[in-house]
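Structure first, sequence second, as always.
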């Protein structure tokens, strides 16, 4: 995946215009079934929402006439080396990633996907030239959409304890008491799912989620006349407050562990564009609303707009654009790189586009690479040692033997990376050590996968293996 710099003949020359070099997109899933009954899944509406978002970002960054085309990205036929896509193994998030990619790189059609074999046979790719794009499995967030509160999916002990502290805070106890009558009044609408003992602010999100899903998807909802717009608004507002306080607390940063690890992944993704001289162009990650809210708090986005206290809607996206204002004939130095943050609440389309917001409480929507990495570095957690230390975990991946082995492996990769112009990438040596360790891990995993393929083996999940030996629905 080496890239020897941009050629002037193929790189759009930017004079007063901006040249986008790389993009990182973090997206929530589309509409899904409610959490309360369990076993959530993506709905047809959710599939359409996420596909529409993917189509929008194609028209913004990829298509030949894209409004803000990423330099040298493949227009119609996907070039896998230019993309990195990941999602947790989840019945909602993983399918959402697939749907998004269908909009991003749609089928190429029978003409392009048809080839003639040596024996004269003409073979056409299935599904009109459907483009297969691999999706990596994210390490955290597995089955998160089946959990009432997403912190459990983090496996971070101190984050879970910190979130639980909210349930004994004065703010929580006050709302628990003042809203009790309101929640009990919902009983006729939810009594098949929640008992009266469960109808309280403690379950603010799952109660809101059940009624919100019914309001969107259930045409036979028997209590539709009782679920007024005012009631739904109050349910949403209380759920916003409940979930934000579980996701972030300024005095207990570990509570926002999801946002801290996401921040490191964002810097890593954009840094990969830099160290590859633009070979890797687009990173896409899917995750749950808790990661959004944790990041909103850590990046002080609530100062930019109070709406960031709320739960992002289905198919919401955070976007980080790496660009330059200077004319370019080769990949620019880091001094000429800038980062812009954008957010859109809900499905993105041509009439409802992402909006730029300033990060870290600053007044600028356009940060230098150095200022961006400095701001993210104040709260990001990007290596296993730091994660284990912050979380207080000492077993599993945080056992002393595994951490010692990881540290020894990471030390060999801590050299400050540079681009083709010889410029530093703007990251500290420690941050580059994290990135180097992650790249090393990716290479090892790639070699293991190659060995599996060449040896004729295949990976089977424990769940699937169990289903082969016992009947299980």
């Amino acid at each position: 995946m080496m890239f020897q710099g941009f050629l002037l003949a193929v790189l759009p020359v930017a004079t007063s215009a901006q040249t986008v070099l790389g993009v990182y997109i973090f997206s929530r899933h589309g509409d899904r079934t409610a959490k309360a009954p369990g076993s959530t899944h993506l709905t047809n509406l959710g599939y359409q929402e996420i596909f529409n978002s993917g189509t929008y970002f194609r028209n913004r960054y990829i298509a030949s006439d894209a409004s803000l085309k990423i330099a040298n990205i493949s227009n119609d036929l996907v070039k896998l080396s230019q993309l990195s896509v990941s999602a947790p193994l989840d019945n909602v998030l993983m399918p959402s990633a697939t749907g998004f990619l269908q909009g991003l790189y749609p089928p190429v059609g029978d003409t392009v996907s048809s080839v003639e074999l040596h024996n004269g046979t003409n073979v056409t790719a299935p599904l009109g030239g459907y483009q297969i794009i691999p999706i990596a499995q994210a390490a955290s967030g597995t089955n998160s959409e089946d959990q009432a509160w997403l912190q459990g999916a983090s496996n971070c002990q101190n984050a879970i304890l910190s979130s639980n502290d909210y349930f004994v805070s004065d703010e929580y106890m006050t709302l628990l008491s003042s809203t009790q009558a309101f929640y009990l009044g919902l009983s006729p609408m939810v009594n098949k799912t929640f008992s009266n003992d469960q109808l309280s602010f403690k379950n603010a999100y799952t109660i809101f989620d059940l009624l919100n899903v019914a309001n969107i998807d259930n045409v036979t909802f028997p209590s539709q006349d009782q679920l007024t717009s005012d009631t739904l608004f109050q349910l949403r507002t209380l759920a916003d407050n409940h979930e934000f306080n579980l996701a972030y607390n300024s005095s207990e940063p570990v509570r926002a562990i999801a946002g801290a690890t996401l921040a490191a992944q964002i810097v890593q993704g954009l840094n990969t564009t830099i160290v590859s001289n633009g070979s890797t162009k687009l990173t896409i990650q899917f995750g749950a609303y808790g990661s959004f809210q944790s990041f909103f708090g850590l990046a002080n986005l609530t100062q930019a707009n109070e709406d960031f206290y709320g739960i992002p809607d289905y198919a919401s996206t955070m976007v980080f654009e790496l660009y330059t204002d200077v004319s370019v004939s080769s990949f620019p130095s880091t001094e000429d790189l800038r980062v812009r943050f954008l957010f859109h609440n809900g499905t993105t389309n041509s009439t409802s586009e992402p909006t730029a917001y300033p990060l870290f409480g600053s007044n600028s929507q356009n940060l230098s690479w150095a200022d961006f990495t400095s701001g993210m570095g104040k709260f990001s957690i990007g290596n296993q040692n730091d994660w284990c230390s912050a979380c207080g975990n000492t077993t599993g991946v945080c056992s002393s033997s595994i951490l010692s082995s990881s540290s020894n492996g990471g030390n060999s990769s801590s050299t400050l990376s540079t681009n083709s112009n010889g410029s530093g990438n703007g990251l500290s040596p420690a941050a580059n050590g994290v990135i180097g360790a992650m790249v090393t891990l990716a290479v090892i995993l790639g070699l293991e996968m190659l060995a599996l393929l060449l040896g004729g083996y295949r990976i089977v999940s424990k769940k699937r293996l169990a289903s082969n030996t016992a009947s299980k629905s």
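Margin note: The longest strand covers residues 19-27.
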